[in-house]
Amino acid sequence: AEGVLREAQKMQAIGQLTGGIAHDFNNLLQVILGNLEFIRAKLDGDARLQTRIERASWAAQRGATLTGQLLAFARKQPLAPSAIDLAATMPDLIPLLRRTLGETIDVRYVETVGLWPAMADAAQLESAVLNLALNARDAMPGGGRLTIELGNKVLDDDYVRRHAETVPGDYAMVAVSDTGHGMTPDIVKRVFEPFFTTKPDGKGTGLGLAMVFGFVKQSGGHVKIYSEPGEGTTVKLYLPRAVGAAAATGQRSGSPLDLPR
Ligand code: ADP
Questions:
Q1: Residue 248 pLDDT level (bands cut at 50, 70, 90)
Q2: For the residues of 200-211, what is the DSSP string, one character each?
Q3: Pseudo-torsion of CA 131, 135, 140, 141, nearest 10°?
Q4: Closest among 172, 183, 62 to 114, alpha carbons compared
Q5: Which of 6, 40, 53, 117 could form a disulfide with 242 if both were Cys (CB 3.0 to 4.6 A apart)?
Q6: 233 CB near ligand 1 (under 6 Å)
Q7: What number is the ipTM of this complex?
Q8: What is the rounded distance in angstroms from the CA atom of residue 133 to the CA atom of residue 146?
Q9: Ligand 1 atom closest to the CA of 134, numbered from 1
């Protein structure tokens, strides 16, 4: 039974992974197709170049069809979004994180009063946070501090213009910060790529952040990474604020500011 379960988890992981990647990949293909079309219109009468453009177009179209199939496959791996009261569910995770990360890592938890409920799959959110915490641990071999911080965030038009890939609106934020070795900008650029890892000896799969990205994208959210070599890393997950009837069941009025360790 364990094998079957693991297989199911693996399928779900692949589904999420492909969901997030296919979504962005499709956007890139649309850019290629649009530009090919533009060039084709300018190529009056050069038959050989026309043929080349048509071949490139055909390949990009074929790519778009394949990513469409991947997205369809990804959607078969059901996410079960509901309104999550983060202030109620996140504290439960902290003891598990303390046990997993060991004594050399100081785990802190910070939340603000009146947190908005998040619309997401609760089990997937938990595994995303765990993934981030394990990366943080690996970045702090000599010990350090891990901070989980919850907050509300309005992503306005200006933010969206600068960072793209999301829509303006209200988001619940889950931030995971460490005081580890950090990353250079070159590495930050690549961390969402599936199978990208810098961990030696087969220690890494390179799937952790790709899965986190896939999950957040499929939830209609946004991921932002801040990292400074030698200083540490912060990964911020923005999940859409749950509204309406769904939110009413998940909402909780104020809560203490900072849960002691
Ligand atoms: P894996 O952990 O298996 O390598 P991930 O996709 O989770 O795969 O991470 C990819 C890479 O991103 C890591 O190998 C590491 O180089 C970098 N990385 C991720 N999280 C952190 C972090 N908190 N601090 C420093 N580097 C990180």
A1: low
A2: TTTT--S-HHHH
A3: 100
A4: 172
A5: 117
A6: yes
A7: 0.98
A8: 8
A9: 2
